[in-house]
Amino acid sequence: VATSGGFSGEQTSTDAVALALAATDGASGYAEQTAWAVRDVDPGAVAREAVEIARRTANAGELAPGSYRAVLGPYALGELLQYFAFDTFSGLALLEERSYLSGKLGERRFDEKVSIADDALDPRGLPKRFDFEGVPKQRVPLVEDGVLRGAVWDLPSAARAGGSRQSTGNAPPPAERRWGPLPFAISVAGGEAESVDELVELVDDGIYVTRLHYLGIVEPRQGILTGMTRDGTFRIRNGKLAEPLVNLRFTVAVPDVLADVPGLTRETTLANEAAFYDERYAYGALVPAIATARFDVTGIGGPPGI
After folding, report:
1. Is the dihedral of CA 281, 283, 288, 294 positive or negative?
2. Most CB contacts within 10 A, which of 78, 141, 194, 279?
3. Mean pLDDT for each consecutive 10-residue tract of the chain (306 residues)?
């Protein structure tokens, strides 16, 4: 990167991604692993995970619309939060008053177990040293113990904000500058649960969601998103995974999902589908699995695999 401000620098990075989608008639399963070093990716384990999920999703049943307790696996939580974050934690969106943060900074709006940062320096992710304007990366607290703390900035949005506002090193590629600064390295602090099974045990009656599909932003100021579950949705009964479910349509206010969180796994996963509408990108979200008291199902789709 070379800029008119006098910066000139380069960085080299690598990333390795293994994705597996196992499908038969009426059943499917998905798994992924991402790391900056290929030695840390195990394609065999990814394939086995996807096959096991697919095996368990055969003969899926339906679920009535309603508000359910849920456990979201890391793939599901990662996608949900990345969509939410791009409109919520953007300094430009905040300036234009189209962010959920507008008028709420400093307020506790999420469960106190929830802490979120943008951290492109974390070696567990896909580290970057500077952004597309040459500004050094830094860890940016976004939510601390449920309290809304801030947003990310690039040079134009920081200048527009005025005062002492500085870029946080979140300028996007030139072709995407219209979106303003973006939090490319979402990181959610893990909790106390030692496994996903431990989270499932917290839910007497609810659903487990492996992965999401075709998300869309409905109302950014309220953080409302809609989409479908896919590749492994199950009913939870008496703290155990029970029968598989067809793909479900959901419409959720992400703040509601994060407002009452019984638990999060201690371990975090680098969630990254590696492509967005066929465009390759090397970004991901470091996220745990999460148990939530509210996940709103609004309809059903086809069986897994469709």
Report:
1. negative
2. 78
3. 86 91 92 94 98 95 97 97 96 97 98 98 94 96 99 98 97 90 97 98 98 95 97 98 97 99 98 68 91 97 68
